Amino acid sequence: MKISIIGTGTIANEVIRMLKTEVKGIEITSLFAHSNKEKAQAIAKSNRIERIYTDYSQLLKDDDADFLYIALINSVHYDFARKALEAKRNVIIEKPFTMTLQETETLASLAREHQLYLFEAIAPLHTPNFRLVKESLKRIEPIRIVQCNFSQFSSKYERYLQGDIAPAFSPEMGGGTLNDLNVYNINIMVGLFGRPVSKQYFANRGHNGIDTSGVMVLSYPSMTAICTAAKDSSSPSFIIIQGEKGWIRIPTTANEFRSIEIMKQGKLTSYQRNAYENRLAHEFVDFKNIWERKDYKQMEEWLETSIEVMKVMT
């Protein structure tokens, strides 16, 4: 599978390293620089990427990639993905999918119209550990309470307090804790339990209105999920699923999903099923396998999860 990397930021660099070192069968054809050509040249040189584009229209016209991986600031995900789909290109979008439900539904409609593959890069949902948790829920049912906490004090927070606003703290660029961290918790809840009956978001807001931390409460017919995330403070990160017959704990950040503990009938068992060191590897292997198998039905199921998550996020 051939892929073009759209962006030169932290996550784009991590994906490039992962594709070069851990995942086989995916070739990087080119790199697109949205604003910093010199940075793109350095990345391309160190990773032996032959082509650099600064004109997106030219890339869509000339590059022969099977997929475009869009790893730009959140606020431009929609525009870049829409142009790619209109050019009949398969697309992988870094989380969060878009900024609004309408944007997500428009992209989904375009993909379906042209029978294109459209994936959201939300890593934990593609791990064997996540699948094991989903399979294990029946062992502790009925589920009553779920607690999620993904809190990391941001290295950019002190600068933000002084008025130096990075994209992660910019409302105009789609920043904020909900879009950056809590999106993982919400994806995991929707991936495990489906659409909530109702939701409420309680945000702590900074001087420009951005949510620097917050709590999302998701209500289901017989359970409640509390999704907490913070960039203005820190805490041990975890997910605990409490059932009447036991509990399941993921004692890592939601984006890592590295290990699982299951308590059942007084016995605690630990699992680690993930096969790759890099947290992003499983999702790209999944995308490649689904595309090669032409399993459009599976793509549709994942796309529906992205739509449901965006209903909650919006």
UniProtKB/TrEMBL annotation:
InterPro entries: Gfo/Idh/MocA-like_OxRdtase_N, GFO_IDH_MocA-like_dom, NAD(P)-bd_dom_sf. Gene3D superfamilies: Dihydrodipicolinate Reductase, domain 2, NAD(P)-binding Rossmann-like Domain. It holds the Pfam family GFO_IDH_MocA_C3. Residues 142-249 form the GFO/IDH/MocA-like oxidoreductase domain. GO terms for molecular function: nucleotide binding. Residues 2-118 form the Gfo/Idh/MocA-like oxidoreductase N-terminal domain. PANTHER family: PTHR43054, SCYLLO-INOSITOL 2-DEHYDROGENASE (NADP(+)) IOLU. This is Gfo/Idh/MocA family oxidoreductase. The lineage of its organism: Bacteria, Pseudomonadati, Bacteroidota, Bacteroidia, Bacteroidales.
